[in-house]
Amino acid sequence: MVPEVAAMLSDELNVSASDRILVALSGGLDSVTLGFVLHQLGYAIGLAHVNYGLRGVDSDADEAFAAHLAVQWGLPFFVTRFDTKNKAAAEGRSVQELARELRYTWLENIRAEAGFDWIATAHHRNDAIETALFHFARGTGIHGLRGIPARNQRIIRPLIRLFRSDILDFARREELVWREDASNESSLYQRNYLRNEVIPKLEGLHGGFIGGAGRTIDLMRAAGVWYDWAIGYWKTQVSSRQDGTLRLHKEQLRAAPDPGALLWEILHPLGFSAAQVSDILDPSTRTGAVFEGKGQRLVNDRDYWLLRPWPEAEMGDYNLELGQEELVLPDVRIRCFPEGGIPTVFSDDPRIVYLALEHKDFPLRVRKWRVGDLFQPFGMGGKHQKIQDLFSNRKMSLPEKEKIWVLATADGRICWVMGLRTDERFRVKPDSRQVWRLEIKK
CB-side exposure of 80: number of CA atoms within 13 Å? Predict the structure, then answer.
């Protein structure tokens, strides 16, 4: 196994013999083996251990083991601790997601401060297969089916071409000692469920599944090179820049082999959703319709889709300009039309409202509700109410609250808690000078 890792480092990862490598050491089989092999190859390495505080005395024992190994091998040792569980609860995030973020941020800080060239993690081919299966289920496309990259900026994975069985056989021959994480046997975590339940069943249904899946990842990685090249080529054919605006030529894009895939690859990195891409390509989408991504705004013009950045101060808030009939966000579409007069019939659908608005009220602001937001609910005689209290009265769950958008005037007055209730100040009266019909659709 040592020659294979040496070849991987020099030929594919372009790591020179003089480079310094910081090894992410959990204390388990994979990371201990990686540290041992790199030490055997003569690289200048350091060991870095994260104590997430998730397993009580076992977490402390892992830390002590990692520190002892550094002393035994005569290597620099770096360690940190996080109160991961409480921090995840406070931020409303999954423990695994937060742990990964904390780990890589800390490792990069140590790498830069201590003068290491690379961070080495012990991911292997089985890990890549699990990741590809995750991505397959989530519909991430060809990028996700490549598994885990061997190199990502300053992170390298020298064991990524090796199966876990190869690593285990080597460690036993070398009589290495490592720590077993009992939580790996639990199938409560999604990745453990794949590893412990799903993959063994697939292996049972089709002997050699793991080997075949590994070869498939290699093929997808090779196909991905050509895919990236083709996407890059077609981007140059359908786009041009003018005064800071990216112009996507409709006729040329629709002539591409797969316009949807090409437009997705252009827009997805900018925060646009698959549903938005579908709407953008829909010939019935109105000229002038606006689609919002993360810091980017796409306008449907006659012959082009015009993509331009917008000020960071506006991110999270969206403008509905005077005369703009449609605004398309990742999870909601808003339409706005002036009425010719006072409506004779009002819809019972809470997604369709009529508001008395003046030109000075534009541009209307579309944003998520915020704690402390006040409005004057229609029918309450001008009394103020917190939007939060409106939610409580309706016994809305947290996920339901998080989906709510509000519509406000240019000066910040909330005129519609979308899909729930309008504001008394903007109700239509017999003498209203201008009435606007607004509707929302998923």
Answer: 15
Instruction: Write down the pTM of the prediction.
Output: 0.62
Domain residue ranges in the chain: 2-221, 243-314, 341-441
b/e 128-156 (16+ beta carbons within 10 angstroms → b): bbbbbbebeeeeebeebbbbbebeeeebb
pLDDT of res. 313? 38
Beta bridge partners of 47: 23, 77
How far apart are alpha carbons 92 and 98 in whole angstroms? Answer: 10
Q: What is the CATH number of domain 2-221?
A: 3.40.50.620
Would you give the end-to-end CA distance of the chain in angstroms? 54
Two domains, one topology: 2-221 and 341-441: no
CATH top-level class of 341-441: alpha beta
State the pairing for strand pair 333-338/435-441: antiparallel
Do 178 and 49 meet the contact criterion of CB atoms below 8 Å apart? no
Question: Mind listing the pLDDT tens digit for each residue in 141-173?
Answer: 787 888 888 999 999 999 999 999 999 999 999
Spacing of C-alpha 340 from chain mean position: 44
Q: Which of 325, 267, 263 is nearest to 292 (CA)?
A: 267
| 368-420 pLDDT, tens digit each | 888 789 999 998 988 999 999 999 999 887 668 878 999 999 989 999 999 99
Cβ(336)–Cβ(437) below 8 Å: yes
- Mean pLDDT throughout 252-272? 91
Q: Which of 208, 133, 124 is nearest to 163 (CA)?
A: 124
Beta carbons of 334 and 326 less than 8 angstroms apart: yes
Question: Does the pLDDT of residue 190 top 90, yes or no?
Answer: no
**Residues for the chain: how many in total?**
442
Q: Is the pLDDT of residue 120 over 90?
A: yes
